[in-house]
Structure formats: structure tokens, C-alpha cells
Amino acid sequence: MTARRPEEATRALSASVRELPGVGPARERALLGLGVRTIGDLLHLIPRSHQDRRTFRRVADLVEGEVATLELEVAGTALRRSGWRRSVLEVTARDGTGTVALVFFNQPWRQDQFRKGARLLVSGTATRREGAWQIVGPDVEEAGAGEAALAVGRLAPVYPLTEGLGQTFLRGAVRHALDRVAGALVDPRPAPPDLPPGPMALPEAWREVHFPGDPASFERARARLAYEECFLLQLAMAVRRARVKLHEETAPLEVPDAEERRLRASFPFAWTAGQEGAAADLRRDLAAPRPMNRLLQGDVGSGKTAVALYAIALAARAGAQAALMAPTEILAAQHLATARAFGARAGLRCELLVGGMGAAARRLVREAAGWGEVDLVIGTHALLVEDVAFARLGLVVIDEQHRFGVLQRAVLREKGLHPHALVMTATPIPRTLALTVYGDLDVTVIPDRPPGRTPVRTTVTSEGRRAEVEERVRERLRRGERAYWVFPLVEDSEALDLPSAVGALEDLRKRVFPGFEVALLHGRQSPAEKAAALEAFRSGAAQVLASTSVVEVGLDVPEATVLVVERAERFGLAQLHQLRGRIGRGAGEAAAWFLAGPGRLGRRRLQALKRTGSGFEIAEADLAIRGPGELAGLRQHGLPDLRIADLAKDFDLLARARRDAFALVERDPGLTGKEAAPFLPALVERYGGEARLLEVG
After folding, report:
1. Can you spell out the DSSP letters for 440-487?
2. DSSP letters along 327-370, please?
3. Cα 560 to chain center, whole Å?
4. What domains lie within the chain, and their CATH numbers?
5. Residue 530, SS3 per DSSP
6. Three-state SS for 606?
7. Helix (H) or strand (E) holding 546
8. Quick check: 605 and 569 in contact, CB under 8 A?
9. How confident is the model over 319-358, as pLDDT tens digits?
């Protein structure tokens, strides 16, 4: 959306809603509750739905309880008052087939609107009272209003509401907003002719998305506006990528072929084709004079950590240091154990830096990093403090990046001079979110799983079959297997009627698993308590680990073959898939039971986990069910929420917008030409204040 002069549209859209008729201080505050400050915000308040009020009925054809649209003539009015400031206005209206009473509570001022003989368009739910028809609180407009009709005789928009605002007011305010900006808005360029479900000019799209002539017009309008919104986002992403390529330089981390082959031989297993491809991507990026900015995405057990260690070893061989940041101390410790086992073969010096360490130990690691005496520092947020410095930081690896805010990632990267960055996640990301949240990153996907990983037999059942599940788990424990038992809460809560790890611990120990050891793990424990619980489970001293979702990522105990999740409907599907990834890591057959609470909807949602073991398919299902929200850290990423595009269904639109935006920046990297000029005001308005966030990725 832009103007003949781009700044003209910016001014029109950024004007306060107070400039609209009927918006005083009280309504301004109410609109703020909907996130509406400006006229542009109001136009972006897209209707949740449209009520079809195009078909008129006669009074004789009314059906009780159904919404009906009628054209009536006012026969008379009666105003009754009952108590202080209470009133009932009854308008008698008729057509040639009968009479209906229109009832308005506490709106005495409306009596003057209903002149005898006036013709009205009326829509509302018809009911019978003492044998006569009535409609309470109907939408009413004058007949013959034509284009001015907002709610009757057309598809009437239904907006999200908050206290102090009604549909009638919002419809009128949006119409005034459209009229106000109509003269300023023109297309920055014609819509792509192959845009599904068909091209539409932007000014027309803004009107049709609110007051469409038919459902097809609404969808064409929504698609046109969603495309433009996605285009601006992708334009920002493309500018970021071009900026890195043009202006940022870093030291190439090159390793001779013979040295690289020796590093690869340090891994005691054969790599999959997906790992081979990922390794090639990383080696090529590290050898370039521009900083790598790559997302490494793979399903549970796909071998991402091995590929990351390969990149870290390459950096070390080239004379650089690396930092690996994990979201939890548990995962950081797991990475340290893996890195040290690999480092013993590859000559990699590794240290750990987490908040739970003593001051003396932390100081030693900081000094080693500062003097360049360590190749890899693995840590949590403790890596971000100011007194952690590196002699020659060349590679930053962020694991499970959605757990970190974008500014935290910026701080870590600033500890080096444009270091290479590898962002990796085991949480499969839906295609639209990958293009939205990580659109400025190069993406590598490891699509396959290492050989030997066994499928997990998954059962979704109700809590009523708990006794059967408990017995099945006991049978497996008797065979020497181990089990995770996961709860939605750490401790019992008065506000939530949900089981907790702490609350259920004694029952698990005494009733469910007598004769077996049950360890407890959750995020509120001290580092020593967590380490003790993990060691007991790893060693087999404890056969059951009662835990929260803290075991979701990173924990690797091949002997664990059983997973039980209490009240599984309280978890996201992708999170449950991550939990399921904790088992099936060895040779034995693995089994997962998801216990769902009352309600068929929750159990039906969980069936996606039974249908497929693909995290990518599950991620798409999770997005469709839950929406983007926190699914992949969208809010943490620092970019504004998309207000029109639907990330659950608009992949084709987003992909088209991405192609067009990147092509524009390819032609004009600095956006200085005539083609880019119409987009600059909107681009700066929406993303200019977040330039630093766009630079981080």
C-alpha cells in the first residue's frame, strides 16, 4: 500500500484514530486494547468472518432462532422506562405479510431515528414472545442506503471486540477510515497476474477485505494484502542478506583436503547422505570471506550435533575459536560429553561455562577463552556476560535457537569480528515459519535419520486406561529397559488441575513401580540435583525418570525405550514429537503412551503423532492447530507479527513474495532505483526501528 507520493500514504495511515468521527478518549482507549492506534492499524483489523445478509425474508417466512434479514416499514414506536436509567424501546415494523417488534434496551435516543413510514433494512435473530415476532438488538440501516449499507443486505464484517466497542461502531469507523485514505492509496505496481486466487488492485483490496461483494472477492482481497505484507517482510530479509554480502567481511576458515579427511575419520560412524550434504555446505561457507549465516534443521536423531562438531573442528584447525550456546545446563553438559569424546580423537580442547559453576571454575574457563587456550566453549546464557571474551572467536553455534531471544544471539556474535554463525534446531519448523522467521538465513535440512534408529510405537489413550499402561511399563522394566514419565507441571497447582512431577513422585515409587528406582528431574533443581538424577538414569541405578519437558531436547540414553506423557493434550504436537525422540535411540523396540485428559478434541489432535514419525509433517499440523504464536519463537525473533497473512495456509503466497522481493534486491541491492522507491516508506515504517534485529538472524 503506497501513494502517488509514498510519504502521502504514510501520513494518511499513521494518523491517529482520534481523527475519525465518533472516536473520543474512551473509544481511543478501547481501540488500543485491540492494538489499534492509527488509521492503518484499524484497516489491518481484518474481520474474523462475514455474516451473509444478502438474502431477504418476509415476516411470514421467519423461523424461530434463525438469523433473518428483512426490509420493513416503521409503523410506530413505544418507549417504556423502568427504574433509573433503564428503558425499553420497541419499534413496530411490518411488511406485506406480517409485523415484528424491534427491541432496544437502554437506547432511548434511538426513538428519533425511527420515523413512521421510514423503510428499514433489519438483520437479527427472530424469536416469539406471547405469540408475536420480535428481534432483540438488531442491526438496522435505512433502506436505499446503497453503498453506505454496512451490515444489512450484504456480507457484514464481524470484528474482534473488546469492552466498550460494538460491531456497529467498528463497521462505521472502518468505513470512515477507508474513505479518508482512499485518495492517497494507489498500487506500487500491478499485482502479479498469477497471484492466486486472482490479482486485485490494493485500494480495491482494502475495501473488499472489509466490505466484500461476495466471498470470492474477500479471498482475492485478503490474498492481495497478504502478498504485499509478505513482500515487505521478505524485502527486509533480502536487504539484510545483501548487506552481509556487500559490507561484512570475516576471516575465511579454510582447511586443506588432507586435514579435512583426518577430521572426518575421527567420527566412529558412517554419515548419512543428509549429513554429507550439510557438511559440504558448512565447509564451503566457512571458507568464504563473508560470514556464514546458516540454519541447520533436522528431525530428532538426524545427526545435527555431529555436523556442528565437524564445523567447530574445521574452525579450530583454521586457528579460530568456537562458542556453542545451549538453552539449558542439562543440554550444555550433554554437548560437553559428546564434544570431549570427539575432541579426544580430533584434538579439540573443550570447556563448559554455565551459571551453576563455582566462581573459581568459571574464572579459569574465562581466562582460557581470553588467552586462546581453548578451542570450544560450551555454555548457556553464562556465555553472554560482559567478562567472557575470546581471543579469536570465529564461529558461533546456537542450539535449539528458538529458546533464545534475538538480542541474546546478537550479544554472543558481537564477541567476535563478524564470526560465522550456525543456528541449529531439532524442532522441525513449518515451511512458512522457516521463510518468515529465518528468511535471511541460508537453510540446510538433514532429511534422513541415522541407520539403526527404530520407529517408536505410539499409543494415544485416555487416563481411564492408566492401569493398563502402568503394567505394560512394568513389564519392560523387568526386561532391563528404562522409562521416561513426563508431567506438565513441576509441582501441584491450585489454579490448574494437572498432575506434577513432584506431586506424583511418591505414588510412582510406592504404588506404580515398587522394587524399581525412580529419579526426579525438573528445571527448578540445583545443578547438582539435576546431575545426580541424570547420572542415576544413565547408569541404570534408576530405571524411571520422572520429569517435566526439560528432557525434551538433548538427552541421550540409548537404554531408554519407554515414554509416558501425562495429560499429553497440554503439550504442543512438535514438543511431544521432541519428547518421543528421547527413545528409540538404541536397538530395542521403543513405545510411547500419550495419556490424554477428558475431551475427544484433545485426543483427536494427538492422532497426528500416531499417523507419522516425520517431525516436519507434525510441525505443519501443529501450526494449523495452534497458529504461529510461540511455535518457533516468532515473538522472540523481534519481527512484527504478520497481521493479514495466515502462516498455516499461505505458503504459496509467501514463497511468491520471497521470489519477487529477492529478485528486486538482486537487481537493486541498495534499493536506490525507481522500482524500489514506492516500497521504502512502508519498509522503513515497519522494520526501520528493528534494523539491528534484522541484522542478527
Report:
1. TSEEEEE-S--TTPPPEEEEEEEGGGHHHHHHHHHHHHHTT-EEEEE-
2. SSHHHHHHHHHHHHHHHHHHT--EEEE-TTS-HHHHHHHHHHHH
3. 31
4. 55-153 (2.40.50.140), 257-288+303-425 (3.40.50.300), 456-612 (3.40.50.300)
5. helix
6. helix
7. strand 544-547
8. yes
9. 999 999 888 888 888 899 999 999 899 999 999 998 888 8
Instruction: For residues 663 and 91, give the distance between their C-alpha atoms in angstroms, rounded to a whole number.
Output: 61
For 418, other C-beta atoms within 10 Å of its C-beta total 17
| Torsional sign, CA 114, 117, 120, 125 | positive
Residue 444, phi then psi, degrees to nearest 5 = -120, 130
Q: Among 553, 331, 528, 298, which Cα is nearest to 422's?
A: 298
Please state, in angstroms and rounded to a whole number, the distance separating the CA atoms of residues 185 and 206.
Answer: 10
pTM: 0.68
Other Cβ atoms within 10 Å of 86 Cβ, number = 11
Question: What is the per-residue pLDDT for 690?
Answer: 42
C-alpha cell at 414: 558481537
Vertex 376 angle, CA 372 and 382, to 5°: 95
CA 542 vs. chain centroid, Å, equals 37
Helix axes 600-611 and 615-626, enclosed angle (nearest 10): 160
DSSP 386: T
